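I'll show a typical protein example:
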Amino acid sequence: MEKFSCRSLSAPCESVPASPATKRFERSKQVRKFFKFSLVAGVLAGMGVMAMGEANAAVDTETAFVLNSFSFLVHGVLVMLMAAGFAMLESGLVRAKNTAAICLKNIALYSIAGLMFYIVGYALMYTDVDGGWMGAFEFLYNPASSELALLNAADAGKEAANAALLKDSTYASMSDWFFQMVFVATAASIVSGTLAERIKVWPFLIFVVVLTGIIYPIQGSWVWGAGWLSEMGFSDFAGSTLVHSTGGWAALAGAIVLGARKGKFGANGQVNPMPGANLPLATLGTFILWFGWFGFNGGSQLALGSAADAAAIAIVYVNTNLAAAAGVVVAMIMTQI
C-alpha cells in the first residue's frame, strides 16, 4: 500500500508530530542565525567605535585624570604584593626556627612604612624642595584642596569644582601617595632580607622608623622631589638609586656592623652550610617578586593618559621580563663555572 504524506498530491495533508531530530535541527538553525546576526552587529559596532576613535584620537582631560590615577593605584597594589614575595623568599631561605620572626618583620615593616610616610615622609620628600636638600616637615599628608572641594561640593557646584581639579592636577594626589609609599616599604624590605638571622625584631623595627620616615624621604627628595640632584640633570626612572641603592647601602652598613650570622663560620674559618627551611616557599616568593616588579617598573611611567604612555608601559613590561629571565639564565651559568 502506498504511503501518503503532506508532500503527496493524491491525499489530504495530515499533521504529523515533528520528531526530536527535526526539533534539534530547527533549533540549530535558529542558533546559527543568532550567531550570524551577532557577528554582523559586532563588526558594525567595532567599525563605529574605530570611526569614533579616529574622530576623537586625543583622550579628554578627565579621562586622562582617571587613567593616570588608576595606573598609580593598580601598579601600587602590584608593588604591595612584593612585600609578600620578600616574606616568602626570606622565610624559605632561613632556618626553620627563624621563620616566625621573618614573617613578623616583613608585615611590621610594611605597616611602619605606611604610617611614617603618611605622618611625615611624603611631605619631607615632595613639599617645597625647590632644588634643595629636603622638603618641609609637615605632618599628616592630606588630599589636595581641589579634590576635597570636589568631594564636598553641592550638586550645583560639582561641574565648576571638577573643572578646577582637572586644571590643578593630572592625577589624584592620594593615588600618587600610595604608589610612592609601597616604594618606601620595598627599600625597607631590602634591608630585612640582608639582615635576616642577624638582628632581633625590635631593633630592626626602630631602624625602619628612621629609614622610612627620614632617610628615604630625604634622599628621594633629591631627585623625585625636584631637589639638588634633579637640578643637575640626574634621572632615576624606577628607583634603581633612590629605592634599591638606599636600601642596599643601609643593608651593607647593617651587615658590616652586625657581622656574619652566628654559626656561619667555624673556629678555623671554614664555612658552615645553613640550608633554607623551605625552598619551594622561596621559589614562590621569587615568582611573586617577579610579578610585582611589573607594577614597580610599569607604574614608574607615572601616566596612562595617552597612547604614548600605553606603548611605553608595554615596552617597560617586556624589558622587565627580559631582564629577570636573563638574570636567571646568567645565574644558572655562573654557578656551573
The CA atoms of residues 91 and 102 lie 6 Å apart. The domain at 63-334 is CATH 1.10.3430.10 (Ammonium transporter fold).
